[in-house]
Amino acid sequence: MTPLDATATPEAAPGPGGTVDAACPGVRPPGRPRDEQATTAITEAALRQLEEVGYVRMSMESVASEAGVARATVYRRFRDKADLITAAIERRGVPGGDVRSDRPRAALVAFLEEFDQRFAESCVEVVGTLIGSRDDRAALELHRQRIVRPRVAHARALVVRAQELGELPASLDPDLAVQMLTGSVFARRVAGLESERSWASRAVDMLGGRDGDV
Q1: 30 vs 212: CA distance, rounded Å
Q2: Which terminus of the chain, N or C, has fewer Cβ atoms within 10 Å?
Q3: Whole-angstrom Cα distance, residue 80 to residue 18?
């Protein structure tokens, strides 16, 4: 790892996702592509620190140290801590469940289980901190844009597909259904309850079957 003077400052502050706007005065123009291996090391270190010490206690410097890179390497990719951690969670991808599945109800169950296992804890940690902070509303909006909205849209598509195939009532409000399902995940996390076996299947069952079976 190349030593970095503690007083050094990054060449340019990248925008969301680690991109730099070349049109901004004084900003370094695009150069060679970023080293994907370094980016992966940084985002994985960020996720480990999020789990081990929490969002408040982690820092760009501590992530750089754990990833084995210079601090400037992190800042060339990510503007700040919110940019870094939301990008790291985003790189995990949207939970499974093919929206074109012929069994969308089962796909919705799989989505909930994966969301609970891979995303819920980190989302509660980050969202709770950002909502409690009144100083950086842009960071909360960034999390909603990168993490919340894509997953809500995916879950909604599964609900609509299940309605089209008659696996869920046509009269069901898809938006409210998604809020209820994902809300059950966060409610258990906040309450400190363990995920019981088949909880996701039972949660989807609460939405009902065909019209008349609710």
Answers
A1: 59
A2: N
A3: 10
Both tokens of residue 150?
């894509």
- Count the residues in the chain: 214
Token pair for 112: 């909930």
Residue 213 carries which side chain, given as an amino acid letter? D
Residue 39, Cα to own-chain centre: how many angstroms? 17
Tell me the pTM.
0.70
Task: Answer for the pair 95, 111: CB distance below 8 angstroms, yes or no.
Answer: yes
Which residues of the chain form CATH 1.10.357.10? 104-205
126-155 pLDDT tens trace = 776 776 666 667 888 888 898 889 989 999
Angle at 169 (CA atoms; ends 167, 171), nearest 5 degrees: 155
Alpha carbon distance 184, 172 (integer Å): 17
104-205: which CATH number, 3.30.70.360, 1.10.357.10, 1.25.40.10, 3.40.190.170? 1.10.357.10
C-alpha to C-alpha distance for 51 and 32, rounded to whole angstroms: 32
> Tokens 């069994």 belong to which residue?
103
